[in-house]
Amino acid sequence: MNVLCISLGCDKNLVDSEMMLGLLNQKGYSFTSDEQEADIILINTCCFIGDARRRA
Q1: 50, pLDDT greater than 80
Q2: Backbone φ, ψ for residue 31 (5° rounding)
Q3: pLDDT score of 10
Q4: What per-residue confidence (pLDDT) applies to 46?
Q5: Which domain holds residue 50?
Q6: What φ, ψ does residue 5 adopt, rounded to 5°?
Q7: Considering the entire predicted model, what is its pTM?
Q8: CB 17 within 8 A of CB 43
């Protein structure tokens, strides 16, 4: 399974996304930056930062 991760918001969101991707990597998932190749699109966002809320 190919996973595309989009992280919106603060630096903590980026760290959380990296931790999730690390766990998925341990489970054998592959990663892509092409949404056409992605089987799963993971969006990690922050509700406290207005720009991230609008983009989500």
Answers
A1: no
A2: -125, 150
A3: 79
A4: 73
A5: 2-55
A6: -115, 130
A7: 0.75
A8: no
Phi, psi torsion values for 35, nearest 5 degrees: -65, -25
CB atoms within 10 A of CB 53: 13
pLDDT of the residue at 49: 64
Query: Into how many domains does the chain fold?
Result: 1
Positive or negative, the CA dihedral 15, 44, 21, 31 is negative
Residue with tokens 């990690």: 44
30-31 and 2-7 strand pairing: parallel
Q: What is the pLDDT of residues 1-40, one digit of tens each?
A: 999 999 987 788 889 999 999 999 999 999 999 999 999 9
Task: Give DSSP secondary structure letters for 10-38.
Answer: SHHHHHHHHHHHHHHHHTT-EE-S-TTT-
